[in-house]
Amino acid sequence: MLTEKHSILRTVFTTTTITTTTPTASVDQLVLCSLLVGLKYYEDIESLEQHFTTDSMSYGPPINVAKGFQVQLLSLRNKQKKYLTLRLPHAQFNGLSLNILLDNLSAAYDDNTSHSLAPCAQYSA
Predict the structure, then answer these.
(1) DSSP helix/strand/coil, 78
(2) Segments in 1-125 forming alpha helices (H)
(3) Which domains does the chain have, with CATH numbers?
(4) Where does residue 7 fall: left (phi above 0), alpha (psi -120 to 50 degrees), or beta otherwise?
(5) DSSP one-letter code for 42
(6) 3-class secondary-structure state, position 73
(7) Source organism's superkingdom (predicted)?
(8) Quick one: pLDDT at residue 94?
(9) What pTM, to 2 d.p., does this model score?
(10) How far apart are CA 45 and CA 78, in angstroms?
């Protein structure tokens, strides 16, 4: 539901090369009609900082259909705490939109979606 309301979460980037007398490469931004977002589960995490560093370094930029938006459930070692985390490349949010995305995620998580979720255009510049 969150990806349905926020087109930026369905945004992907592709590279194309136009071959003329001089090959020209470009990066194109596409908004998919739908995007299936899976939940990745990691358990026995010793350090959140180490997990996020390793996870971020293992992904390249979200180009050529590489997924950018990801939801993770993390379970820490020797603790009863679990964390629901969002992995977003910087191209998919900004300081104005992040709070709206998190409010909408919280409403969806609490199944409190009776109020209208704000469309992306509300906070785009």
Answers:
(1) coil
(2) 2-5, 48-58, 97-109
(3) 2-122 (3.30.559.10)
(4) alpha
(5) E
(6) strand
(7) Eukaryota
(8) 72
(9) 0.63
(10) 9
